[in-house]
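User: Second chain of the day. Same drill as before.
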Amino acid sequence: MIKLERVPKPSELTEEIVKELIHRYKQDGANVWNKNYIKRDLLNMSNNKFSYCECLVNEESKYMEVEHFYPKKDYPDLVVEWENLLPSCKRCNGNKLDYDPNSEPIINPCDTNPKEHLGMRLYRLIGKDDIGNNTIDILYLN
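Assistant: Same format as last time:
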């Protein structure tokens, strides 16, 4: 897992739009983050890789899901907050599901250099600390 450099949020994601999308999500649970401009900029940020497993979007899966680092059910006000969004494959997003990283931290590849918490041994990821171990366990990275 590599550190991602967060790019500026899409110009289409104005404060007014953010408020409107959060309101819609709170009203009816609509999939308000499934916007082409959000997905486009997330993929640009990650060089067309998924943020956790680093599989290339075109090789492993043509479908990218928008991952909410802080789960949308517990943090509805962050549902389209740019700093909370990551590109994810279906497997990693499903494994993480509603896991709250405030309970036991995991790596956010935009905020933390994963190399501080993860290493490799015999082609498998190993945790250097609890954060690395939690990340491997929660996301089933091995």
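The longest helix spans residues 15-28.

User: Great, on to the next one.
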